[in-house]
Amino acid sequence: MNRKRQLLIGIGCALAILVAVKLRADAAGEIERLATLMSWKTGTVVADIGAGDGSYAFAALDHVGLTGKVFATEIDEKKLKELRAEVKKRNLQNVAVVESAEADTNLPAACCDAIFLRRVYHHLTKPKEFDANLIRSLKPGGRLAIIDFPPRPGLDPVEGVPSNRGGHGIPQKIVIEELTAAGLQVEKIVNDWPGDDYCVLFVRK
Ligand SMILES: C[S@@+](CC[C@H](N)C(=O)[O-])C[C@H]1O[C@@H](n2cnc3c(N)ncnc32)[C@H](O)[C@@H]1O
Known about the structure:
It contains five helices and seven strands, in the order H-E-H-E-H-E-E-H-E-H-E-E. By secondary structure, it is an alpha/beta fold. It has a single domain, classed as Vaccinia Virus protein VP39 (Rossmann fold), CATH 3.40.50.
């Protein structure tokens, strides 16, 4: 391998590490804010629905302690496999990876003090059924946070979602309409969430 090639590989690796460190720091900051908003404490049981690479679910562990628990759910087979591998690699005893379905979280009933969906609600293809199952998984007094964004130009529409979304994203008004119709009450709306997102906090009375 010549020196130029070695140098390019070195720069590529350094950049990848910097990006990973930045993403982890962003997730930790956002989760800290969410933990305060949702009153997480040691022993709290949290679910991250549509956990993706798990950055947010794993960051949540710092706030619930060893007596708490985090459910990390996904519908995507590859992401599920990677989440399970990461849990095994880190030997995390209080994370449960759950395979989600289109219309169901597949979480146990009344298992959670807090559930959050970050940039996932606008991907739901059966929101009415999914919402009923989200509520079923919340303990009475439990909270649900939806972090999402209004439709953004330049993003391809999401296949299979209801036509009222108006593009890739979802208007906050629709999130509130659907989840209050499902039986939750709005507790707080935060419009200055990082990444130009909003966060709507609901409570199950
Ligand atoms: C834009 S990504 C967000 C990932 C992660 N929450 C984050 O903020 O980095 C949307 C994720 O939702 C997942 N998803 C879509 N529909 C789902 C469903 N019904 N149940 C669980 N996850 C779902 C997708 O597989 C994808 O990983």
